[in-house]
Amino acid sequence: xxxxxxxxxxxxxxxxxxxxxxxxGVAKALSxxxxxxxxxxxxxxxxxxxxxxxxxxAGGDGMTIKAxxxxxxxxxxxxxxxxxxxxxxxxxxxxxxxxKDAKFHNMTLAEWNHVIGINLTGQFLCSREAIKEFxxxxxxxxxxxxxxxxxxxxxxxxxxxxAGHANYSASKGGVMMLMKSIAxxxxxxxxxxxxxxxxxxxxxxNHGAWQTPEAYNQLLKLIPAKRIGEVEDIxxxxxWLASDDSEYVNGITLFVDGGMLLYPGFEDNG
Length: 270
Description:
This protein is of the alpha/beta class. It contains seven helices and seven strands, in the order βαβαβαβαβαβααβ. The protein is globular and about 50 Å long.
């Protein structure tokens, strides 16, 4: 159950890759906090419209837009549609991402480029357009103390190497430095850029890691909190980073991982 707090009342939030999983959970959380939400999807309008219907049924407002975030023209069109409907944008959540796993010696250039294109280039393109709008509009004090907020969806794998997932891990390491670099560059303009680093979250992308009791118990060996994360855990973190409660927070990755980065192999003294 998400408690409506209205911390984002009157603001407009765009969430990429929001038709399922973490993106859908973040869209619902931002809406519950008062934001109008732009639900981006790449291929499944039915899922996106279902999420929007649930948001509207809960008293929220929003729209859906189809766009491939790795395609520059489609990103430009998505921002144009958003500004036409709402006039501006206050919050961008760069959530769109995917995996194309393979042993490194078998990985194709197409598999590498597809993951880098969505996971990293997509964040570059969307962040660039968001920052242009934030700079154009500036601070509106009755909306937020910041001129704009960007939340980059990263992963614990910006830190933890992941054999068999070199393209994914490289993309998330890139997201970390992209986030920090633009946070540093635009902090003087009161534009805040941060990341969320999810650990194991119960979503379709990692269904195989928790679908059976055996797989779930094996996964819990990596998580000191001894539970898998839920999309609501990420949604709550996104609301905080998008709100003025975190106004002095800039350029950090907030890991929401149940302690996965705490070297759980050393729980019993190694």
